[in-house]
Amino acid sequence: MTPEQKAREAIDQRLIQSGWILQDMRQLNPMAAPGVAVREFPTSTGPVDYALFIDGIPIGVVEAKADEKGENITTAEAQSSRYARSTFKWVKTDYRIRFAYEATGKLTRFTDYKDQKYRSRRIFSFHRPESLRELLRQGDTIRNNMKHFPPLDTSGFRDCQITAIRNLEQSFGENRPRALIQMATGAGKTFTAITAVYRLLKYAKINRVLFLVDTKGLGEQAEREFLAYRPNDDNRSFSQIYGVRRLKSSYIPNDVQVCISTIQRMYSILRGEELDESAEQTSLNELTTADRQPVKEVVYNEKYPPEFFDCIIIDECHRSIYNVWQQVLDYFDAFLIGLTATPDKRTFAFFNENVVSEYPREQAIIDGVNVGEDIFLIETQVTQSGAHIMKQMIEYRNRLSREKRWKQMDEDVDYRPAQLDRDIVNPSQIRTVIRSFRENLFSKLFPRRREVPKTLIFAKTDSHADDIVQIVREEFGEGNEFCQKITYSAQDPEGVLSSFRNSYNPRIAVTVDMIATGTDVKPIECLIFMRDVRSRNYFEQMKGRGTRVLSKDDLQKVTPSATENKDHFVIVDAVGVTTSKKSDTRVLERKPSVSLKELMLNVALGARDENTLTSLAGRIIRLNSQMSPGERKEFTEVVGLPANKLAEELLDAFDEDVLTAAAREKFHTQEPTAEQVQSVQKEAAAQTAAPFCRPEVRDFIENVRRSHEQIIDNTNPDTVLFAGFDAQKEQTAQRVIQTFRDFIQEHKDEIIALRILYSQTYQDRPMVLEKLKALYEKLREKGVTLERLWDCYAIQKPEKVKQTSAVRQLADLVSLVRFEMGEADSLQPFADKVNYNFQQWTFRRNAGAVHFTPEQMEWLQLVKDHIATSLSIQKEDLDLSPFDRRGGLGRFYQVFGDKYEEILWEMNRELVA
Asked: Coil, strand, or helix at residue 339?
């Protein structure tokens, strides 16, 4: 078939599925059905591709085009308009061609000529005949009605809500189909949206509104607000005037004007599938893949055609309208209203940068719409620096079952703060934070309270949340009701959430993500962050859980000892979340809804989309970092290639540069076509997915993942380094530095004896590491650590202090003492000084006739690294790790000859000068 014939065939099918009867001129019978589409109907300006008849009267035209890409379809508008103004042959009754379509079979555009400033728009498919009949029956069009909203009765409205509603109505009156309302958490976004819905139903005469959320909890919350809303111009409630229904099945009633649904449920309805209710519990903000199954496209649904809803409101639109879920919005021919407190770049782009209202949190606090926060810091030794576990018999715990067992460690373990509560669980670290919170609760945080204020703790994982719950109960000496977990795996999380919101208990709730965003719990007065957050938007959403205003009377219902309106909340920062660097976007790999096992199974069942394969690559990369060398070797044997290579190929399947290069090679061309690149992409995706089609591969990977356990560190009791409000940091820094100065004076004789701490040059420096350790332990007894001291100098003298993310080494005490004693103009890590001196020393040594060989330089680099952490080196050290792997002292002698000792002592002298 020619491209035009293919287009006509596809258009025929779309018309038929939309309820139209197709006829040729020789079969003409426009009364054969309510809606008849006649091919090649003659007009005064030539035959129109399709003439649309409703009850025997022509009302519309369809201009068919063979342009498969739809790039030039708008040029057909002139032809559609010409046919619409033409005289239809043989038609004697009064008629007016009001509707025009341009279609390619893949793309359809629609114009209603009754709109005052009619404009074509893209639609999913043709309207059904009964829908066009209803449009003909109505007095005016929705877009015309939107130009004539009456003034808003602003009684009881905030200024930000008034601005949002007025600007929204003006935007819709100008036929702008997408509008974004950016409004701070607690400022009344939902109330604003319901007011807009009420006015759209009453004055714009729209038929139905869809209120989209991404969790069941948010849907229930929206339903409560719709049912409670009363307009200023009517004594009845909203639900007495218009029908409101929260969708709980695949059935949508025709006699309600407002439907509340999760976007997941609406997607399944359009697909003609039933939805597992568990899919409505997880926020789309947490999904790494669009669906548990390979991605399926939405297709035409005759029960709920594209014209079924006239307006869609998307709550929390910064997280719920991307990837596969956007199909729901693309399907309906509707105006779109987005609601969010924290839009990102994608949000602005989706709503065509049409922000009708901007009301940031800072302004909301100034206006008294939100409350501000105080920041209270709890810094502990283990939280900041991690710890060291010596090789011994130690307790391990299964990540999933939490079953514990004892076994011998293979080697010493040094763990970083980032590993806490994932690879390593240190109960003392959790207990120290909670105990410090308890000790400061009534003395500093809430001094006039008799009960713990409603407190929400953010945990890293569900397992971490379990640990926190148990320790909170122990530390406060309370029972099960006092502290409870609100996560997706908890028993009756919605019931616990309701009690947290409305009842005395629980006083403290622990969550991971379930109520981190969107959920309204106004009595919360304290947020404890025991996890870091690297997304700016997500952090702002989490802070929003505490920012809601609440009157004294309402607050006293759950917190009886409250004496004032809620005027602030407290962020207890136990992980540095308030100061850590944030990005504009959120990494969606924290609490995925799809397990590794399910991801692999999806791929085995045919999923080749970017979301699935890139998520799988991320899991393989993470697993590779956790595997032992033996497991990596076995992985290569079972799978056929190393884990890092497999992850690389999964990512390369969607790397444009890699695919283009492959297409050039395969098709022997410098400029491969889009079709050629797509062909290579499909091959690459299929090839990299092939291993996961083998059940033995999936079983092996899953077993490796499950085999990894958490170490329970009961050997390193944690200590509080600092607990106080952030505003006190300047004074605190001065206090810590003064403590260090007093310490230097107190131990001046010991410091002088070490000499390394102040001498610029010296001969035969003694080994001082053990004495330095002893000195540092005395400093720690005064509550001063290297990390804390370094940070305090950075606060006092930021222009002279080099800040790095590296963990402070014991040798950095050398730099600190020298800086405080005025023997160094700037404070930089001891390793930096050693590195600089090493460069200068090797430059001088290589300036002569004899240069160090490559092997000699490798040895010197190792010696330099040893001095950077241990302050010096002796020849006996060369028989220890890492030198022993290169042959130890014997090989060092072979490489440097009789001058090997001279080299060592010269480096001892020069590198720490």
From this structure: strand
